[in-house]
Amino acid sequence: MKYTLPKLNYSYDALEPYIDAKTMEIHHTKHHQAYIDKLNAALDKYPELQKKPVEDLLKDLDSLKVDDADRTAIRNHGGGHVNHSFFWTIMGPQKTEPIVDLVKYKEEFTKAALSDFGSGWAWLVADNSSGTLKVMTTSNQDSPLMQGLKPILGIDVWEHAYYVLYRWERAKYVENWWNVINWQQVKNYYKAAK
Ligand code: MN3
Prior knowledge:
Shape: globular
Structural class: alpha+beta
Number of helices: 9
Mean pLDDT: 96
Helix content: 40-55%
CATH superfamily of the largest domain: Iron/manganese superoxide dismutase, C-terminal domain
Strand content: 5-15%
Bound molecules: manganese (III) ion
Strand order of the largest sheet: 2-1-3
Low-confidence stretches: none
């Protein structure tokens, strides 16, 4: 089974004016699709791994019986696939009630999103065993799942996520992004992690 691009639950222009339709379309149909295509290509030789959810591959990356180059490809493109699949679900056009417990982390989360040098993600995650929340960043397409952590909130701070509309102004993008969070969905992740 090949991995496939998940559909969005909203249209590409639904997050305007905070995220423009062009950025959403390119991000979904080009960037995310490319991670999936390269992940599928890397797994061509390993039909038994293609049957697993990509989350399981990332949680267990070190023990996969694959070549080192393929392990790196699974890390980068598998990470790109899960991170974007998650990202689409926590955004939406509907106005939803922010979760007070999580909004407390906004300042720390924003600081992390702005401090991350280069390409990566900022996250609010829960520890798998204790459920303790913390803010973190990952580089490139690394996923918190690789460290046994569950994402609750996450923002893509690669330039491709905001450059069309915001150019160099990552801070404005990060601030505006809070307007498109689908708190209903975030609440589901938060509950599941507790
Ligand atoms: Mn991206």
